[in-house]
Write a structure and sequence with these properties.
It comes from Boletus edulis BED1. InterPro entries: BTB/POZ_dom, SKP1/BTB/POZ_sf. Helix content is 49%, strand content 11%. By secondary structure, it is of the alpha/beta class. Among the domains are: 91 residues, 2-Layer Sandwich (Potassium Channel Kv1.1, Chain A); 110 residues, no CATH class. The strands form two sheets. The protein has a five-stranded mixed beta sheet with strand order 1-3-2-5-4. Helix 3 packs across helix 4 and helix 9 packs antiparallel against helix 11. It is elongated. The N terminus is likely disordered.
Length: 314
């Protein structure tokens, strides 16, 4: 009996089909045996190159040429093997690859855009706005989304940048967008800050029953020097500790104009510590502040910032 032999190929599985009619060579030496059908269905540029026989389908493909190799068409790519494999997984009827970070997503999008794979780019764009990316790296998400023309994702990421100070750490993706776009983002941040801060000095947004809150009812605490009108048309004296809380909230909103700021436990704790000095306020301050912040203040901050337009051209 003849010995069992195992054929070893230089191709990366599962892109090693002997019936494939195109070989892709990547910049780091990886090889992929792929089917022309899937490439041409995914990319109009590769369709021109592989089916119509043009060796230079567009200026973006300068240096890309089809050659013959072992009875197949062969193309040399400047992309690396990992990125190429991920893009091919989108071209084929496979499960989508796992893209764990923004660098991976950006590399895949860049290759897809180069080859005109607009339909597949739309399948990748949703990965940009995963909660973990938006919360931890909103400025990077903003720059990447704008770079690739994803309007909804750009606007959503801009909203998440409000959770950070206006001048945050530098990110490399800013090099891929115009300075004018970043300037527009800073303007947006400032306008949102003004809108959110205005809530701390104008109580007309308070609910109709606001006069029942303890900081309007207590006469034992020191009152603020100013009286404040409410939605019922009446003017009320206000306990100083409450106005001090609103002033601290204003400073926080000036830096980070988002609803999350006013729920900061440290901000609330200072107000409650001051209220604890009064017998009447001590028993009611926690519940009343919780109602103000949870049911009204956060919603008004979101409403105020959502009304601010992100004036960025696409």
């Amino acid at each position: 009996m003849s010995a069992l032999t195992l054929e070893v190929t230089p191709f990366r599985s599962p892109f090693d089909d002997q019936d494939a009619d195109v070989t892709l060579h990547t910049s780091d030496g990886a090889q992929f045996a792929v089917h022309k059908l899937f490439l041409t269905m995914s990319s109009p540029f590769l369709k021109r190159c592989l089916v119509l026989g043009s060796s230079s389908p567009s200026p973006a493909f300068e240096g890309l040429a089809v050659r013959q190799e072992g009875g197949r068409d062969a193309i040399d790519l400047v992309e690396d093997g990992v990125t190429t494999e991920r893009v091919l997984q989108y071209c084929y009827p496979f499960s989508n690859p796992i893209l764990e970070n923004l660098d991976d997503i950006q590399a895949v999008l860049e290759m897809m855009r180069k080859f005109g794979m607009k339909g597949m780019m739309n399948r990748v764009r949703s990965l940009l706005v995963q909660p973990s990316f938006l919360e931890e790296e909103p400025l990077r998400v903003f720059a990447i989304a704008y770079r690739f023309g994803f309007q909804a994702e750009t606007r959503l990421a801009a909203q998440y940048t409000l959770r950070s100070p206006m001048f945050g750490p530098y990110v490399k993706e800013l090099e891929h967008i115009p300075a004018s776009v970043y300037h527009k983002l800073l303007q947006y941040h400032r306008k949102c800050s003004v809108a959110a801060c205005s809530l701390t000095s104008d109580f007309s947004w308070f609910p109709a029953f606001a006069s029942r809150w303890v900081w309007f009812q207590c006469d034992d605490c020191v009152h603020h020097s100013l009286s404040w009108p409410l939605a019922d048309g009446k003017i009320y004296e206000v306990n100083a500790w409450f106005i001090e809380y609103m002033e601290r909230a204003r400073e926080a909103l000036r830096e980070r104009p988002c609803a999350k700021v006013v729920t900061d436990p440290l901000l609330i704790a200072e107000a409650l510590d001051a209220a604890a000095a009064c017998h009447m306020c001590r028993s009611a301050a926690y519940l009343d502040l919780s109602t103000l912040i949870g049911d009204h203040f956060t919603a008004e901050v979101e409403k105020a910032t959502e009304a601010v337009e992100l004036d960025i051209p696409f």
